[in-house]
Write the structure tokens for this entry.
Amino acid sequence: MVSTLDQIFVLLKHWLVGLLPSVLQPAAGVLLSVVAIVCVFPALFALTVLLERKGLGRMQNRLGPNRVGPFGILQPIADAIKSLTKEDIVPLRADALIHFLAPLVLVVAVFLEFAVVPMGRNMVLVDMDASLLFFFSIGASTELSVFMAGWSSRNKYSLMGAMRAVAQMISYEVPLLMSSVAVVMITGSLSLVKIVEAQNQYTYGLPHWNIFTPWGCAGFVMFAIAATAETNRSPFDLPEGESELVAGYFTEYSGFKFALFFLGEYLGMFSISGLGTALFLGGWSAPFSFLWWVPSWIWFFGKVMLSICVLIWVRGTLPRLRQDQLMNFAWKFVLPMTLLNLVDVALWRFLGEGWLRWVVCSAVMLVAYVAAALTGLRRDHIGPRSYRYAE
Amino acid sequence: MTPLGGYLLVAALVFAIGLAGALTRRNAILVLIGIELMLNAANLNLIAFWRYGPHPEALTGMMFAVFSIAVAAAEAAVGLGLVISIYRHVHTTDLDEMNRMKG
Amino acid sequence: MNLVFYVLAGLTVLGGLAAVLLKNTVHCALALTVAFAGLALLFLELDAQFAGFAQILVYIGAVAILVVFAILLTRGSETPEDGVFSHTWLAGLAVAAAVFAVLGWAVIQSAPALTHESAAPVVTVNQIGNALLGRYVLPLEIVALLLTAALVGAVIVAMHEKEETK
């Protein structure tokens, strides 16, 4: 019974595919999984937008949306109808083809990312050998769509937003990759399924998640920072800073195309939370061994929603960074710390089982972070901003 | 036409396109684009020979391609850095106008 | 030779042609990414998964973005009035055509000697990793050194010079 509930979606898919003639079965299986992904995550998107608007409202002493339906829970439907029926405006001087392609490229790329994220036991669309590499290579191509959107609009705000976004995404992609490499080093595989399975073990009822190790804890914090920047969320939302750039790279988008950008951004959040969950938070494994009977997909989606809630909380709490602070933070703090993380993982790996590695690795991380905090807190190098132009 | 022959022809075509671009365009950045295309065509050759060669398990061709990708990335970074630096001096990226050795 | 190959080859060649022929420099850069993507898919078609993903990550994720940045920083997207091609374009085209003719002739001549369809080699990322840190460890270290040197070099070359040195 428990295992049936755990595998209910897999069994459902097998049953549905079994109804078809055997020639069509492989294609139908893939198609069914794709349809499931394409339906589930946009539904989650609608839920998250409502959650975010309500949550941010509460954080700012407002009520949030409360007009449509009881407690405003039908707000996502109203938003969807509004964005579908709005007039689609393309600026006269805009590069029409690229202006049209940009949102499509973004949404397609983001949907592709979900193909390799394991959402439960045996619930992954493609279990390939290099799935982590696939995820990052697809993630890298979303930068291009942001640039396309900003450049093709022929609008200064859009272009500046796009340049900021691309610079930021390139800078934070390096620490994102570096912090994931630590996990790859310890697991010895680029396959996300294998990475999750390696964490699905328990000692004294406690899981072997990567976050519960000195390097994993530090790595997860660095990963979370880089992921927040990668998805252009506050406090790293300079590319769409409302007070400076109207809406950044999608200023000139309206109606359905704007909705596609919005969707792409939130789906990017889901996929990167899914990746972080798989790498550091044990993917679909239960947090305590006595909770093994709860279906694995509940744990996965629970962890993803928890990460989303943290992102919303951070958005409601922290002020926006300045562009030079953003770059300095990426290259002078996050990147060196992730490099140190690699050294720490190597130490952890070669000190072998026992208490020694806990002491040594924790000491290395503590010393590094305390030293960084002490030097960073001295304010003498945070002087006034110096402007540089490319001429 | 064997599969390998097909891939080699495509690689030769891409190489020739890149060469033509590098030789005929006036913008320095587009010359770099042409060079990137030529490097990529070479990579395609390497991978195709690895796949249809006698010893794919030795991974030689694949490794060559991976290293060549890394070297090409370094080349692009330095090349574009040079273009930007030249642009600061002469305020153009037009190669026909860059005919003085004196900065 | 199947349909997938022809579609991907067509995509790559068209992308490459557009990259060198279009007037607007940004369009050229975007066409270049199409060519890169086509090549990456050809790598995947050749069962070289790792190289294909590395190609997408490095070329589309980094090189294309670098090119775009360079274009915008140098105002290269403004099309010059007197044509985008050099005045020696005919000679360049002739050289390229000659190179393609020789390469194509060589491939077609040697076609009977080329091996035929063979079973797809199964290469795991594990094997690639072992090869990189085993047999190819020296090239790997050299590439690491080269990339570090290129990183530092690119920053120094492109960095704003002090006013007095001008």
Q: What stands out?
A: The radius of gyration of chain B is 17 Å. Chain B touches chain C through 73 residues (CB under 8 Å).
